[in-house]
Write a structure and sequence with these properties.
Largest sheet: 2 strands, parallel
Helix content: 25-40%
Number of strands: 2
Structural class: mainly alpha
Order of helices and strands: HHEHEHH
Length: 120
């Protein structure tokens, strides 16, 4: 709802400024949308424009999905996003993180690692 309110409150000039900046994007762009989107009825035209303005963008339409494709086809969306993500380094190349033990709190009976409701 917050995203909708932000878009509704944005003047047309704001959309024009955003659109003007698209060709200059130098970051990976991955867009997945539902072909049956009824909330954004012109989504196909918008994605065609995005593909023209950002040639390196990866744009995928999911047939049979609407506006809430992450709920309608979560596996497909996840797979597309994972495939477009930069490869991660293997665990052997990561710096190990030392975990700190949570302080003991009297309200949890002195057990380590449990936070009381009062402490947040």
């Amino acid at each position: 709802m917050a995203l909708a309110k932000a878009g509704i409150g944005l003047p047309i000039r704001g959309f024009t400024e955003i659109a003007a900046g698209l060709p200059g994007l130098r970051i990976p762009v991955r867009v997945v949308y539902g072909e049956q989107d009824r909330i954004l009825p012109d989504v196909s035209e918008t994605m065609e424009r995005l593909a023209r303005d950002v040639p390196h963008a990866q744009v995928t339409a999911l047939s049979g999905c609407g506006h809430f494709l992450q709920e309608e086809a979560p596996g497909d969306v996840a797979e597309l996003l994972v495939r477009s993500s930069p490869p991660s380094h293997s665990r052997s190349h990561r710096t190990p993180v030392k975990r700190r033990r949570a302080p003991m709190h009297p309200s949890d009976g002195g057990r380590t690692g449990h936070r009381s409701r009062a402490s947040g």
